[in-house]
Amino acid sequence: MQTSYIKQKDIHFLDLRENLKNKEYRNLKNNLEKYNPIDIKDFIEELEPLDRVLVFRLLSKDDAIEVFSSLENEEQIRLIQAFTDTELDRILNELNIDDMVDMIEEMPASIVKKIIRHTDSSKRKLINEFLQYPESSAGSLMTIEYVELKKYMTVEQALTRIKTTGINKVTVYTCYVTDESKKLIGFVSLRDIVISEKDVLIGDLLHEKVIFVHTHDDQEQVAEVFKKYGFVALPVVDNENRMTGIITVDDILDVMEQEATEDFQKMAAMSPDDESYIESSVWYLAKRRINWLLILMISSAFTSAIIGHYNYLLIAYTSLYNFSPMIMGAGGNSGNQSSTTIIRGLATGDIKIGDWLKVMLKELRIAILVGAILGGVNFIKNLIYDKLSIAYALIISISLIFTVCFAKFVGGLLPILAKKLKIDPAIMAGPVISTLVDSVSLLIYFNVIKIILPI
Amino acid sequence: MQTSYIKQKDIHFLDLRENLKNKEYRNLKNNLEKYNPIDIKDFIEELEPLDRVLVFRLLSKDDAIEVFSSLENEEQIRLIQAFTDTELDRILNELNIDDMVDMIEEMPASIVKKIIRHTDSSKRKLINEFLQYPESSAGSLMTIEYVELKKYMTVEQALTRIKTTGINKVTVYTCYVTDESKKLIGFVSLRDIVISEKDVLIGDLLHEKVIFVHTHDDQEQVAEVFKKYGFVALPVVDNENRMTGIITVDDILDVMEQEATEDFQKMAAMSPDDESYIESSVWYLAKRRINWLLILMISSAFTSAIIGHYNYLLIAYTSLYNFSPMIMGAGGNSGNQSSTTIIRGLATGDIKIGDWLKVMLKELRIAILVGAILGGVNFIKNLIYDKLSIAYALIISISLIFTVCFAKFVGGLLPILAKKLKIDPAIMAGPVISTLVDSVSLLIYFNVIKIILPI
Questions:
Q1: How far is A252 from chain B, CA to nearest CA, in Å?
Q2: If you average pLDDT over each of A131-135, A401-405, A427-431, which comes out highest?
Q3: How many Cα atoms are found within 13 Å in the side-chain-facing hemisphere of B220?
Q4: B148-248: CATH number
Q5: Quick check: B318 and A315 CB within 8 A?
Q6: What would the CATH number be for the domain defined by A300-452?
Q7: Pairwise CB contact (< 8 Å): B296 & A237
Q8: Interface list for A 58-117 with B (CB within 8 A)
């Protein structure tokens, strides 16, 4: 433990590999103890299938549970198939309900049957309840590993309750207080319990300012609550305001990553999904990409129609035509900058629907500034490098400025409009904006040509 | 407290507003107690400047500190200017070092002087140390609000230490154990302390498997550690492995949001920044956007040159020309999908540099599939809707397929190549890929025309 974790990454597992190679299983068992279960998981995943089961069997009970619940589903299935009945009992009875539910949701029916056979009936009932929460809901994220206290308990009784529940996680640091009908009435921090005298009542330590969410709330909104208040855990209640579980911040880190990934996907015109790229099939990935490509391709029929309509200009001024992709590209890039900025601002809460006028004015002013610079640089380039006439250079630069203004205007407006209409703003990103800007920039260009040049 | 927080949002503060309007300050003070400090902050930000100071003065000491540290800098400055010396002392002495440092970094010198005058010398020394950590480093994220224990302490002594430090945060739930030279040797959880007998030694409860980071580690990598292990706090050590502070998960939520925002900005060809859009000036925003727009505009000189070179084809087959923006667009969109997928996969760790061959083969196979569908649909559209000849429709569709293949190939390859070359992969996103694909798709198109049609 001489270097920071971040610099240590590359030197992991040399001792374990050595032990395994030399079949020094006693040393291997001892050395495994030195690693965090998440690292052991990484180590196990690098091994041959047979060695995986072997190493898994050498783990201490606590490590085995943690390693098992962090493994990929395919690996869990492989282990379950290799397990004896005793081993299966040992693992399944210690696994959290929420980890079991996550596992069961992904597994083939034959394995689920084997699992259910080794689970006692009360746990089975809970699993069934959990399986009914909608995907991405607070209910599907929560764990039931929390400490429930009553107002009339003393600090001593509370400490006994905490000790006997045997919960060994962050989830113990806030205890939730419920009334006789299991309704949430507040919370007590473990710290307050620890620093109070034995006979103080929990009711006296109670914080009634409790922020909670509902089993059916969406995980993205739950993440917002965590971000806003900096909580470590958040209680979840059912329709009758009865305490049903808690969500812990480590799961929220995953939710945030997943939600950001989905936004990236939508903004690049793909159907969102949180499956691993490496694990996904070509068919599956293609299916998620083709719809938007088709829609955007069909939409670009407008651009073809516009060029077709102005073909006579094209024949008269062929050399001007060389610069249309540059104008379309600059427009698309400008619009993409604006729409990305606004979509992200809406997602993080920096920009609100009510800011639309402010955003429009700001984008227009930025567009004029940016457009003028691009137009100016391009004008000089056209004269010096492309050796165009002043009239030609002027046409290109004027079109460029108008295109940038239009692109930044729609790039700023469409995401806010989408949000107002309860459509996901992330759809109004680069690809859609570019397709729109392509058509309009050509219209601008051809009309500027028509106005300035004789035909 | 009848509804979930998420549904409650809109009904906030009615009682507070009513109290303030009717000048019922006693009731206002009582009602403020019912709210979370973060909500009080939201309420205060909606008020007129004079009312803000008034409401702030009605807060309990703990709430006042929390509200103050969560306010925007401009608002903090306004309050500091309104404060009496006693009030300033009260706030500054209770504020966390890390919150103070964050505040000082953003404030004008005159305010900083006023703050420093009201800070005692030991705190001043600490502030100076903190100010020296690089931006976005673990050191700049950490807090010194943690509990430090020694191996030889008993559980009883440890509990006394915990009570007397008076730390009132999540940060108390893991206590860090150091040796005589303050070197980090392990940790003990508050839970283990609480459930142990009074005379047990901390050394017996010690976990030596401690994962830590260094003050100069980058915050993005620190966030990776949190995500991987699901920690609530992580210790930070200096060059001599001495314990210097801890990072808590609530700050990591902000880091993750900020890092995702920066990726969105880079991928839309903007200089990354975490300033608020609404607060930023037009000049500032324009400056962050213009560089890439200029680079991409200049790069598109290639497209102009290519069209110029093939002008003779354009004159011979004008109507084919109408479809070039569609091909460029479809190519850009296909490439954008691939590059976004790979950039995000590299960021989340789903894809590694070593996967490059797998990624390339997958992207090529997706491209053939997607390209064939796009080409097929377009072929039919060209024949039926655009009434083109079979030769023309064939030229367009073949070019489309080759363009999609090229776009997905470079879209998949460039981000991995960038990562290999230690360049940020996020740069190889839509705008760069589109500019590249624009040129190459035109080259493909013109050459397919040349091969199939007589000139």
A1: 9
A2: A401-405
A3: 9
A4: 3.10.580.10
A5: yes
A6: 1.10.357.20
A7: no
A8: none
